[in-house]
Protein 1
Amino acid sequence: MNHDFNELRLEGVTRRFAGAGGQAFAALNELTLTIKRGEFIALLGPSGCGKSTALNCIAGLMQLSGGSIWLDATRIDTLPPEKRGFGMVFQNYALFPHMTVAKNVGFGLRMRGLPDAEIAPRVAHAMKLVQLIGQEHKLPGQLSGGQQQRVAIARAIVIEPPLVLMDEPLSNLDAKLRIETRAEIRRIHKELGRSTIYVTHDQDEALSLADRIVVMKDGVVQMIAAPHDVYGQPSNLHVARFMGYRNVLELNVDSEQGDRVALSGPDVHLTGVRKQPLAGGRACVAMRPEEFVLAVAGAANTISGRVANVEYCGRDSLVDVVTASGTLLHVRAPGTPTLGENVHVQVPVERVLVYPSEASA
Amino acid sequence: MSAAGPSLGTSPDRRWLDRAWTGLLWGLMTLFLVNIGLMIAAVATNSFAKRWLGTWLPDGWTTQWYVSAWKEFQLDAILIVTVEVVFAVVFLALLIGVPAAYTLARRNFRGKRLLMLLFLLPLMVPPITYGIPLATVLYKAQLAGTIYGVILANLIPAAPFVILVMTPFIEQIDPNLESAARVFGASTRRMFWHVLVPLLGPGILAASLLVLVRTIALFELTFLTAGPDSQTLVVALYYAVFAAGVRAPQSVDAMAMVYMMVTLAWLLIALRFVNPTQLVSRVKEHPQPA
Amino acid sequence: MSSAAAGAPPSAAFDRTLLLVVPAAAFMLLLFVYPFLYGLALSFNPKEGGAFANYSHFFTTDNLWPTIWTTLRLALPATLINVGLALPIAFKMRVKSPYQRWATTILVIPITLGTVLIAQGMLTYFGPKGWLSQFLQFFHLYEGSIRLTHNYWGVLISLVISGFPFAFLLILSYITGIDPVLARAASTLGASPRAQFRNIYLPLLAPGLAMCFCLAFVQAFSVFPSAVLLGSPAGPTRVISIAAYEAAFEQYDYSLASAIAMIMGFVQLIVVAAVLGLRNLMYRGPVSGGKG
């Protein structure tokens, strides 16, 4: 199945496991997604959200409990993995320890019955792409983590698959290597243009690599959108929390006008933008630490409090601000405020995102 | 997270072949296990049988054979000897094995590999091969035929086994724990007693049970070194079977049952604490690339 | 063996922990190495004749030297059966399941019960009047009494009964030590289950399989009680351990007995070396050049 495709469709893909006490629970619940040719999709979420399950189902390493997977007009969820022709990069690299790097990379081509004469140049080309020339005769055990990762990538792309699957490929690397390899993955994707599904729990990776991000929680899709929208306009509170909206306050709803909502709580009066329909008299607001600015008392959308903790971060500081009634806010402010100082922090109305209260959700 | 088996989208022929192969393997395994079960049942039945000649079940049932076997083979004396030998072997094997395992796990030194080979050899060479020269030496030292000779002989495969089991166990314990204990003021002996031994408890228990079960069943070494009053149960059983023509086979079977009960009892206890594979693996080699 | 051992600082003074290993080492040297060397020396010091008299006696006496072949005739087929059956069955059972646990637990029983009990059980069960014979006669599968005891077949069967569980458990522990994700990776690259076995499992198992074969062979080659109880020790199943035992305890010729024990060990060594050599030869193949 080595031809390019126009779209990969997942329709209601569900995977259930027998849980404790015999109750079946859905690790993946009704995932519906269409991937266009050349797209880079990130499946993002905390552990247990179903993203790895989804990847394994697409690869064929797990059978579906419900739903179907289509490659253009061909149904593929009934095929075993060796017939699907997708390339996969595993979290622990899964390099064959008894084969040299060259044999590892050429394995998929050998399985397809290509003669050695054809395999060698293609392997060389893939090694050049991941910048590993010269390591062909080493065994995986002799390589560093970053090099092993690149071998795993080369092995997946050398077969020129219509789709590349990556299961948290960077999570075993240290921070510096992670950033470097991330750039590599971007570069390779730009050069080859292969459709890619990338699983990660790291939002920075998802934001920098993906064309579209699928945010998941407990097996259910929370949001599918471009990185810009996932970052700036999370569609529900879970996505907001996950994407770094650290300040989540539960407040009373005073009034609504269109999508503008006025809310209040002890020491707090805010106006925000409603992202979902509200019910009951309570709602949750989510705000990013970066979007607060220092202001004067009495300005609109301003909260006053005392500086409780300061973490120096170089170009700014992460400041904990505590209001008189004990509400805690995390704020990123320039400079270094003094401990105990009274400050007033202001946030723009468009950046106060209002969601239904968690009790009613 | 099971790998998708051939049930996905393979040809019907392939699936049939695969099913047939699986069926064959399961069939062989079942045949094997069933026959072993029946074999043991046959011994059990015969031990309770009045007379049993070529029919499905014996003519009548009795427990007389157990009584006569007990008297005839002096099972009480033999059981006592067996208990003495086995527990002595376990105790001594732990005594010299655990410290050695500690050193091997925690220290690197010149000649370490040679030492490890020395400890591994008795487990890889079969007892008969080194038993004969050993019996010769024990005979010269006038220990052959006594219970001390038997204990020493059985200790030879037992101590290395303890070392083999305990070494990875000790390696698993974070050496930082020992450092932490020292930093907080514990002397070596107190560190051993309060930190190491409690953590090693399960491993020591596992090693003891494994040595115990293996020593009960170990035939050749005791056979070569025992005298008439220092035989263990398994050797006495051998002699009983050997002279079976003279005695009623039922009493031999009764004795075999006694032996089996003793072994099975300890085996069941051992299996509660130990993985079955450990009873077997003499050398645990992890697959290495060439 | 591990990185944990690197924790000790290099001490200028003598490391007292090393003393802990002395009792065990001394014991081994005294009761294993010394008897072995003593036996070796003794074998060259026969009751009568020159240094090699024992060995020449062995190879010229009609009831002695054929024992090597007799024992090989039993040990090699038994080992091949044991390992050959254990591999596919253990491979099938590599996935952790209740069946795997049950099978491993039950299979431990023949190992722990030992060769003597198996012999007695076989005499009762496989004997001419035993259940198996009755069963076959009842279903008219075989008329007449079966002759599976007191001959070659009895000993062979008992070697399989005591050897198969051991080979199975050992191979199972090797197979489960192979990360299943490797097979999954191979499948995403287009390898059928057959190709996965050939390209991933088999090469990774090769060292373990060779080791298992050697251990199983050594165990089978030292067969003793079964050969006496279940075989006919005077003739077709007169194995080399019987010859050694007779020399030691019936003829009281410890020198000859030691010589026979040395020969026994030597033959084992040759076979083990051959198997390991074969493994090294074959194992290089898929890794270096050529088609894998």
Protein 2
Amino acid sequence: MHKVSVDDSPHVVVEDLVFRRGSKRIFDGLSLTVPRGQITTVMGPSGSGKTTLLRLIGGQLRPDGGRVWVDGQEVARLSNRRLFALRKRMGMLFQSGALLTDMNVFENVAFPLREHTDLPEELIRNLVLMKLEAVGLRGARDLSPAELSGGMARRVALARAIALDPDMILYDEPFTGLDPITMGQIVTLIQRTNRILGLTSVLVSHDVEEAMAISDQVVLIADGRVMDSGTVEAVRERASAWSEQFLNGRPDGPVPFHYPGSSYRDDLLRSAEPKHD
Amino acid sequence: MIDFVARLGHSGLRWFAVLGRASTFLFRLLLALDAVVRRFALVVVEVHSIGVRSLLIIGVSGLFVGMVLGYQGYITLVQFGAAEALGGMVALSLVRELGPVVTALLFAGRAGSALTAEIALMKTTEQLSALEMMAVDPHRRVFVPRFFAGVLSMPLLAALFSAVGVMGGYIVGVGLLGVDSGSYFSQMQAMTDWRADVVSGVIKSVVFGFVVTWIAIFQGVDAEPTAEGISRATTQTVVVSALAVLGLDFVLTGLMFTGS
């Protein structure tokens, strides 16, 4: 986990990011840095734009303001060719796995290799089997994506994400909807991939326990801004009222239980008045 | 009243927005057309799933449309003692109009809706995003092979429809109603012109193939990524394609068959 990288410049830098969807501001001046070779987890409530952040880092969306740098390159300003070159060094694990449904497991993992390299078939076969062995699914190579459980699909997707030996992997909600055993497998895999391949991992999650257990650094976001960030210990120690509520899952606190509305009393009294259309 | 005008304006604006997105999409599709050569294997796969799998419905419909044409044509023509011209009438109706138009409508229902559902599902399950993140352009990998396969399959299917239809007319006209077999085909040959009729029909079907496949793929890409969105997009494809085909047919007929 604590691999010493030769290059200690941050891998990803997000500066004053503004992003709107319609009239809603998803990000409003968000800034964060992701150190190289470590596991950084971005946590926040549902709808706080965590997945959107990954898409902005991957260049699938353009920010309305501010900048996103990956490896010293400003993502939104890259030409298509250079963006694709950057993405070859970036793996992304989607929540659903996003395997191509018209290919079996083997072909899915072989896909990036076939698309981006001219390796002979024999070598591709060996590489794919190595990647599948790493996620423990070498025996499942002939299954179609429809025959896989959610956890298995995610493991195949991980094998595919590391097929081209990227420098960084983005994980979109890797722990959501898994049984305890599969959860354990995924947690171990993320940790192991990070340590063995020495790559930068960016996780997006709201599973506090698992995420805190494997992260070097956490970033808590809500309302389009960073609420707190730092090492796991530091964030736990100085926990503000908001982070305390989030990390411990309290139903009420700075984030109110009730959706904002008019006063309860007024609402009830109004319903007693006669209706006139 | 103001409310009505506002709603009208709103839906008008939305329509133009869709048209804009569809045009941009078509532009990007055309820019990526080199994929037809580079990924020819994918085109072959798509011609199979779009074209070959539509054969049955096209063939059966062609046969029945031809048979009905043979029957109805005979009833009218025999009153003027021109039953011999049946072959020409059947062939002209099929090659000029019914072949391209009915094939396009069936094509929209069979292949178009399948294309939309497939692509919308790929979008919903993040497969398109995954391709982009793997530095693979979905336009080249997914859309162009399907688009080209659609444009290529449509005239072939229309030709098949017309050919089977002619045979259907023959079965009813010659087999059941007693028109002379020789004059069925000689009249057909005499009345049908290669340039004016056959080529015009082929041009029509290429245009319909282009438009229907474009609409189908665009609806898939533009679909809201939910189960509801997929079903809405599929319906939209069939409705919009059908209207586009009928509208374009009117325009193309006007351009092609003036004063002949």
